[in-house]
């Protein structure tokens, strides 16, 4: 609030006055920037001019706030405020029109007001309401004199006061605009600043401009004289000062400063200001505290380059570091080594302990790898349980082997989780750039091939890439592509290996065997392609095709044997894992009319060694369809005895590697005898594969083997030939019973 002069003053009010039935717009002093003490030169000049040109003793500019009239400027009075309801100015303000009173003491409206008395000397009054351009009344401009003026104001005086009132409106509206902008600047994220030609602050819109000093202290100083000078250092500010001296605009310059223990970041933009004659006047611009924005940016940048779980580099960052290594090689000839690894049986950890423990394990692996590698190395998690290390300090030789062994030992140390100890291992594949590839994909692909071979050699192994691995992989890829074509082009067909009952050498079944009629390589046996097919994407479809084709072919053979016949079909790994296995087998039986009681499905020990969830229940469901289950290649795995107890197995098939040595090795005889006896004791049937001699057949007959397969009796034949083979063997059996010789089925 501002005032000048001596005397007593008259005010006006804002608010709602019921006696007039209209609302007057509420305003406040702060809204016009009128809260600071001290005179306002513009308003002071207006009241002095009004008093002088109307020859009045006193003049006032009042401002209404609530029920109080504040004196903004006065001449001849030191009154600060007065109640609006008991003042003449309040009447002028409320009426909204000029109020001229020739003699206050004789006017019944005002004669009894407290300040209209003999002592005040107030007789003549002329008051003009102050209306903003939007129509709102905010106060009055008035003059008061001791002398009665029967004629009131002259026309010139009236016009003068109207002009001064309009001038007051312009001044106050200017103050309002300034106050509004100050409010905007105070709440805005950007601050406004100005500097003179010496780059000293001449104006700052807020208490602080991101320097660690109050704006009042910064006025008259340069930006590099505050605490920020210590944080960024002289070199930073020397560059900035050189830019200013060149009178160049700048944008989004960021600098750091310390606020106690906290580091903050301010971003400034500025442009030079010139006079019309080109004289440099200084700079003006904006500033913003971007500490949180900078922190967020850094966090986002960190997230973009690091794995969210483990904190080590992610795949894109690792790829970028590989690119850096290639550039270093081009510039200096320096090589680098990539180590690729994953965690053995990580899925089992997730399944047993939960994904939270699995995550903890990944974090610990990342920590151990980081801990045991040098500062130049980059550790990355590429996805899942796959990690990679890039070390530019290594190439080939013993150092690489020692480094790989160190990484494997770090992972092999036991992990503690949920009051338990988890032992994990890993294998490593190694590739050296640029020898082992000219790009990220080639290097990583070849490291993966080396990892693949390391795993094939056992746990805790490491292998360096060798060119033959790529050739072998290319062959596998070619084979996979050709197998896909074979499936779609109908290049597969089946042959049938007779299953012979040892007791009477009668054919009591057949095993369906897959053959591939390769367009270039001819007719291929399973040993040439079965492993690739089993791990490929068409194994499930091929497996069900084999089952349906074999069921159709064997249906008349079952009838010929009066149902004393079983069809044996191997299941691929993908089929065993297929949740639709039971339903699809049932559908094939329904479609072909083949009886489940005449079907035997074979699974290998390798399939059973893989965690397959509810596989025991699946096998039981197959048995409920009448189907029997055989364990193929028995004795070649690591968990055979456990499988006999855990799964619903009806038959074991003794692998040919045991049969091959019968009669030539006491050890083979002993092991085979033990296998057959174990199966018999458990109530299981036994079929021996690979019978090629009379001695092998005789031994298996003596130890209690039920059935046999092998070239000694017959090679696999086509579906068209199989009925003839059964007839031929039946005829031979008949001749034997009548005293004839018993030749082999393949004879003659």
Automatic annotation (TrEMBL):
Domain GGDEF: 334-467
Domain PAC: 246-302
Highest taxon of the lineage: Bacteria
PROSITE patterns per the UniProt record, alphabetical: EAL, GGDEF, PAC
InterPro entries according to UniProt: Biofilm_reg_signaling (IPR052155), EAL_dom (IPR001633), EAL_sf (IPR035919), GAF (IPR003018), GAF-like_dom_sf (IPR029016), GGDEF_dom (IPR000160), Nucleotide_cyclase (IPR029787), PAC (IPR001610)
Xref: Gene3D superfamilies: 3.30.450.40, 3.30.70.270, EAL domain, PAS domain
Domain EAL per the UniProt entry, residue ranges: 476-730
Name the UniProt record assigns to this protein: EAL domain-containing protein
